[in-house]
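Researcher: Next sequence.
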Amino acid sequence: MRRKEWLSVILAACMATACGDDATNGTTPDAGRADTGTPTDTGAPTDTGAPTDTGTPTDRGPADAGAPVDVRAGGACMTDDDCDADLGQICLRNLIGSGFCTNGNVCTNGTRTEEESECGGRGSTCLQFVPFNIPDGSGLCTRACTVNAQTQAAGACREGMACTGFWYRDGEGDGDSPGCFPFCTSDAQCAGAMAGDASVMRCNTRTGFCSGTAVDNTLRADGEPCNPMELQMTMMPQCRGVCFSTSSTDRTQGLCGSYINVRVTSMCPDDPMQTPIVPIDSVTRQPSDGIGICLRRGCERNTDCTAPTVCVYPQDAMGNVYPNLPASCGFPTMQQPVGIAPCVDNSNCTMGTICIYPEGLDTTGMNVVLRDRATQCGRPTTMQPTGIPAADGGTPADAGSDASTDSGTASDSGTAGDTGTATDAGAADDVVDAATAD
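Model: Next structure:
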């Protein structure tokens, strides 16, 4: 089978299966890092995770100067004639965005030199984890890039593309060395996305992909709960963006979220105060990938959240809770079964919880009781084994409406950071198995 025909088969299969809508095979995230999610597929991270620092990703790409501006891989095209036939390149115009030049066959992951040799010379790369059904260890040839560069000469991608290694699709949360991949932010960038009438193509700014419809703002906003299992059964969209699976044990638990190209904007579409999830280089403290995920909805108490979600503190895969970090809406966990429910004494609490103060690290790094914070219902701890007894021996005190907020038993095994990951490559409401990005 010729190269172009082989790739066409991949794309046809992608169209039929929604390209990676694999909500049933999420992988559990790396246990101690900032939960940057690992998908079964194109997922995206998180929910209640701990810090977003994912360490310094392994970079096999160009050192820093970026790719030559004239590199053909990843270049704009309308027909195959716009690409380098001697390298076996074709113009890929299906499904995702405006046309770009890539090899007619998949490329093989390897060293920088090996990938450049296969993909067209200096400045090209074989980008893994792309949202197509291709073999493990394979990818598509495109232009290599530098995440924080501002011009193409310095290594930035052209308009309508994002510099990414698909960190949220990699089981380790690191992703590949970055390459340019279509990510639209306006309808104009969808011209030539698919053969036929280009005027019908719209940019879904919540996924970065072109399709026949724009964002439906009547659907649920980022941070609202969604049901990945129901979505797969009915194929009826629930979210303005993507429904991210947030639990590896309960496939009905999900949160709505959106992808953004952080070089274009760092603001989330539904709430400018929302902080997007993006991996951070531990040395430079700058983003190490150009795609971020808007998922966490900030809160102070359970009433700020939409049931069945509650207000919970960040929690890592080991079950450690971080009350000194901002809370967000998420599903109950073993350590936080009722969320942030204010209390006056133990009589206000249910489900085996007692009335205690939050605990966290002081300036010396020691775990202490934070007695300057409001009391809330929580599991007994070593420092607070009995909680605050009712003053009159049992008459419930008035702790406010939140005290009675009971979100039910946690179906998650205890890791609030288990937020699945895996999204789809094109549908506006694809299920993403977000089990990794807290």
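Model: Confidence is low (pLDDT under 50) at residues 1-65, 393-438. The two ends are 43 Å apart (CA to CA).
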